[in-house]
């Protein structure tokens, strides 16, 4: 049975209050109405409409191909399902890097057309203008540091980030900058747990980890990974809570067999 405080609607202010009282924040990805209905009903705090939809929904190798229009479509589907969770929408690659005016236009489109509650951007000092511009429009911003999948071709690998002192120091500085700019929360992806703990203790805003150890303020996973719908992705940080891929495969196989053998539909299932 899900354990969560009864709250009509999670807000950015409530996430901050959760950090202050030491209550961990639960966060999962969602891309469609049906899945979001289940996750929201279970009591999830935050739903991330991630650009990981590019991988798990569209079959791309990276997150780069997904477009702003596609992200708005997925976010709209999720928002229509939600009664409790805060919905955060990833800004896709190319919609905010290098041009703060374009970043603002993209963020406004997401908020107006999807009904999402906040947006998320990858990066630190290099995108400070875009973050500042978006925040001036009153749009809540979640930051994302560490492994940033939209920069995969720059780094060339999905390995753990910020293991070296120089990169770790930059991450600490970027985390502080994002808070000072006005971000309401920060995601840390695939960094040493000791560094993640340091960031979480240094910041007053919530820090959500994915592969960042237990000493942050909350956790996020890709829902298809934690439910066992995807099989190939097996990082150390992933805990599978179900094997729905196998269950779905078996159910479909039984359906096919029942159709082929004329067992389905039965007389009771006919009009």
From TrEMBL:
Q: Which cofactor does it need?
A: Mg(2+)
Q: What is this protein called?
A: 3-methyl-2-oxobutanoate hydroxymethyltransferase
Cofactor annotation remark: Binds 1 Mg(2+) ion per subunit.
Lineage of the organism: Bacteria, Pseudomonadati, Bacteroidota, Cytophagia, Cytophagales
Q: What does the UniProt function comment say about this protein?
A: Catalyzes the reversible reaction in which hydroxymethyl group from 5,10-methylenetetrahydrofolate is transferred onto alpha-ketoisovalerate to form ketopantoate.
User: Entry's PANTHER family?
Assistant: 3-METHYL-2-OXOBUTANOATE HYDROXYMETHYLTRANSFERASE (PTHR20881)
Which organism does this sequence originate in? Hymenobacter guriensis
State a single Gene Ontology molecular function.
3-methyl-2-oxobutanoate hydroxymethyltransferase activity
Tell me the InterPro entries matching this sequence: Pantoate_hydroxy_MeTrfase, Pyrv/PenolPyrv_kinase-like_dom, Pyrv_kinase-like_dom_sf
